[in-house]
Design brief:
Blueprint: E1 5-6, E2 10-11, H1 25-51, H2 66-69, H3 73-89, H4 91-109, H5 115-146, H6 149-168
Antiparallel strand pairs: 1-2
Helix pairs in contact: 3-5, 4-5
Keywords: Membrane, Transmembrane, Transmembrane helix
Transmembrane segments: 29-49
InterPro entries: Metal_resist
């Protein structure tokens, strides 16, 4: 006896009108548990991604603390471009900085140890960081000078709100209790 063919689904394995075979209760429970576990894993992943988003390291225009965070995104970009230009103008500083780290390593490994050599390297690094900070402050000042009175007032309001929020936050590492 041959099985009749259905043009849409192919050969039928049971006669028309016959009841279909049902999954056993154990198999249904297993499939339901598998689905629930998959949904739980997806939920955990989505929860993790929404609660702890990846944050790249801050750009140089975002390192200035409360003043920087009170700026609009547009102002941060403008200032960031200026700081990057200042950094590019100091391309030789990158080579000097690498050489300075080599000097730090040499000073740390020297026997007898000469702390003055290490202090000199630290001083050069501090001066380079100060040049970057000065470039950032100059760009910030230039941007503030270009702001309208309304923009400056809005900037001051955002700065004040940011300072209040920071003051209200509990410290990250509270001192140990006695």
């Amino acid at each position: 006896m041959s099985t009749p063919e259905n043009p849409e689904t192919g050969p039928e394995t049971s006669p028309p009108g016959a009841p279909r075979a049902r999954l056993g209760a154990g198999l249904r429970i297993l499939l339901f548990a598998s689905l629930a576990l998959n949904l739980a894993v997806v939920g955990l992943i989505i929860g993790f991604l929404t609660r702890a988003p990846f944050r790249p390291p801050p750009r140089p225009d975002q390192v200035g603390g409360a003043l920087t965070f009170a700026l609009t995104e547009k102002d941060r970009r403008i200032i960031g471009r200026e700081v990057f230009r200042a950094m590019r103008r100091g391309e030789n500083e990158n080579r000097t900085r690498r050489a300075e780290y080599a000097a730090v390593l040499a000073a740390l490994r020297a026997e007898p140890f000469e702390p003055e050599a290490l202090r000199g390297s630290f001083e050069l690094q501090r001066q380079a960081a100060m040049r970057l900070q000065v470039a950032g402050q100059r760009a910030l000042m230039d941007r503030i000078l270009q702001m309208s009175p309304e923009e400056r007032a809005a900037f001051a309001d955002r700065l004040e709100q940011g300072l209040k929020r920071r003051d209200e936050k509990p410290p990250r590492n509270p001192p140990p209790r006695d």
